[in-house]
């Protein structure tokens, strides 16, 4: 991390020499390893290492972002000169600018977040063994015709951010992952499904045999899928896909969308957007979770925040620029890469769980659709009209009777989110802990 800190300092010095009035610099360094197996043997292996340097320079109310993947002194000097030249030619933006010094984070404990696995990095041999075990477990499930793919991965990255007005900080993170995709049936009757797991600490991962078995069982459960009937029915968004609904909500309260007026929730501040008693909370301090971080992409301290409290929308998601545009303070939610300026973004989210199980909700829905997979997306950002392709299972009299596919689910997001019922099956290790969600009266287009 010390080397990355030195690089950001060099970039800021170069920007000042080139004529920048203010600047921020970010360095992202990472390495990754991924393998895939097929038919009991290694099929593909890939290792990658790289470093990205990003520099944002400001002259008055004009700015530009430049990035390179070469950390030499000569390249840094050229990128600074190029950035200043670009900024001088850029249009003025009244909302750009670094944070005030008193806004910057000054105290954090990266170690408490446990983002970096202290164990030795996974080797290609270890990842291969895990993937082969998952493949074998899937093939052992009765009804599985083949495994489409199984693979493992390991990644490690470090980031350091510095600003010309005094902020400097960095952190690292690791991730180990494993997945398996299984196929049941033959020819035109083939159905596929998958299971995967990814953790900051490899020791927390689900067993490879369990991942393969679940992938196989899911694929077999889809055998013989056909279209459901067309009509208005309740729809249960399984925990596997339910976070997509919350993703649409977060997109609608993103400060950039609100500032443009392109949000179906642009006038909903202080209004009920979720059922009474339901909270939607961001917590950037959860241990060993991918969305945790000690500060945002502009050097502001992150904080635990309820975006929705007791069903009522409490705040927009803001970085410095969108906050200024909307006459509000940043919520400490800036995210940025090496080649882009900061923009509002959220990390870990938890939706209040219900008291009923997923099975309880299935029994309560009577006749309707359980969605376990979705494709495509059509959401009108101004009205919230929603339509997505879906597959899953058909329910009659509170019992799953058959798998279904090739259908479309449609409704209005404001109505869907406002009346949904949550189960209690959210997965605590995920960055977004969202349980299965039951929504009444959606339009299903099937047979």
What's the gyration radius in Å?
24 Å
What is the helix/strand order?
A: HEEEHHHEEEHEHHEEEHEEEHEEEHEEE
Note the gap between the termini. 58 Å
Globular, elongated, flat, extended or rod-shaped: what is the shape? globular
Strand order of the largest sheet: 3-2-1-4-5-6
What does the largest sheet look like?
6 strands, antiparallel
How are the SSEs ordered, and which strands pair?
Blueprint: H1 2-18, E1 22-38, E2 41-59, E3 62-68, H2 73-89, H3 110-113, H4 124-139, E4 144-163, E5 168-184, E6 191-199, H5 208-221, E7 231-237, H6 243-252, H7 255-260, E8 280-282, E9 305-309, E10 312-313, H8 320-325, E11 334-335, E12 343-344, E13 349-351, H9 358-365, E14 368-379, E15 385-396, E16 399-412, H10 413-419, E17 421-422, E18 432-433, E19 437-445
Parallel strand pairs: 7-14, 13-18
Antiparallel strand pairs: 1-2, 1-4, 2-3, 4-5, 5-6, 7-19, 8-9, 8-13, 9-10, 11-12, 14-15, 15-16, 16-19, 17-19
What does this structure look like?
The chain folds into two domains: 2-220, PmbA/TldD superfamily (PmbA/TldD fold); 226-447, no CATH class. It has ten helices and 19 strands. It has helices at 2-18, 73-89, 110-113, 124-139, 208-221, 243-252, 255-260, 320-325, 358-365, 413-419, and strands spanning 22-38, 41-59, 62-68, 144-163, 168-184, 191-199, 231-237, 280-282, 305-309, 312-313, 334-335, 343-344, 349-351, 368-379, 385-396, 399-412, 421-422, 432-433, 437-445. Strands 3-2-1-4-5-6 form a six-stranded antiparallel sheet. Helix 1 packs across helix 2 (73-89) and helix 4 (124-139) packs parallel to helix 5 (208-221). It is globular and about 70 Å long. The model has no long low-confidence stretch (mean pLDDT 96).
């Amino acid at each position: 991390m010390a080397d990355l800190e030195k690089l950001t300092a060099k970039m800021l010095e170069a920007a000042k020499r080139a004529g920048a009035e203010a600047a921020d610099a970010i360095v992202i360094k990472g390495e990754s390893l991924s393998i895939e197996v097929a038919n009991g043997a290694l099929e593909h292996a890939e290792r990658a290492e790289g470093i990205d340097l990003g520099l944002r320079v400001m002259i008055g109310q004009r700015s530009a972002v430049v990035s390179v993947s070469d950390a030499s002194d000569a390249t840094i000097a050229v990128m600074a000169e190029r950035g200043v030249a670009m900024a001088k030619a850029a249009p003025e933006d009244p909302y750009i600018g670094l944070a005030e010094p008193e806004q910057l984070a000054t105290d954090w404990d990266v170690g408490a977040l446990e983002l970096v696995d202290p164990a030795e990095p996974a080797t290609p041999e270890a990842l291969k063994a895990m993937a082969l075990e998952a493949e074998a477990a899937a093939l052992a499930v009765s009804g599985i015709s083949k495994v489409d793919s199984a693979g493992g991965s390991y990644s490690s990255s470090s980031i350091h951010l510095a600003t010309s007005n005094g902020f400097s900080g960095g952190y690292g993170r690791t991730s180990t992952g494993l997945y398996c995709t299984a196929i049941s049936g033959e020819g035109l009757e083939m159905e596929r499904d998958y299971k995967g797991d990814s953790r900051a600490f490899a020791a927390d991962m689900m067993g490879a045999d369990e991942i393969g078995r679940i992938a196989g069982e899911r694929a077999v459960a889809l055998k013989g899928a056909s279209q459901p009937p067309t009509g208005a029915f309740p729809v249960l968004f399984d925990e596997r896909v339910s976070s997509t609904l919350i993703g649409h909500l977060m997109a609608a309260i993103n400060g950039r969308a609100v500032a443009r007026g392109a949000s179906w929730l642009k006038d909903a501040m202080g209004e009920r957007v979720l059922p009474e008693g339901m909270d939607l909370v961001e917590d950037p301090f959860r241990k060993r979770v991918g969305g945790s971080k000690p500060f945002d992409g502009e050097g502001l301290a992150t904080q635990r925040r309820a975006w929705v409290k007791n069903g009522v929308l409490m705040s927009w998601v803001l970085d410095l620029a969108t906050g200024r545009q909307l006459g509000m303070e940043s919520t400490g939610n800036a995210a940025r890469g090496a080649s882009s300026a900061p923009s509002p973004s959220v990390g870990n989210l938890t939706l209040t769980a219900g008291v009923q199980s997923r099975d309880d909700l299935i029994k309560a829905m009577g006749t309707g659709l359980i969605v376990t997979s979705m494709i495509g997306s059509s959401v009108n950002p101004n009205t919230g009209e929603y339509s997505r392709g879906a597959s899953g299972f058909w329910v009659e009299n509170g019992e799953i009777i058959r798998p279904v596919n090739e259908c479309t689910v449609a409704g209005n997001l404001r109505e869907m989110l406002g009346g949904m019922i949550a189960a209690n099956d959210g997965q605590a290790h995920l960055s977004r802990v969202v349980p299965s969600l039951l929504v009444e009266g959606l339009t299903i287009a099937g047979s």
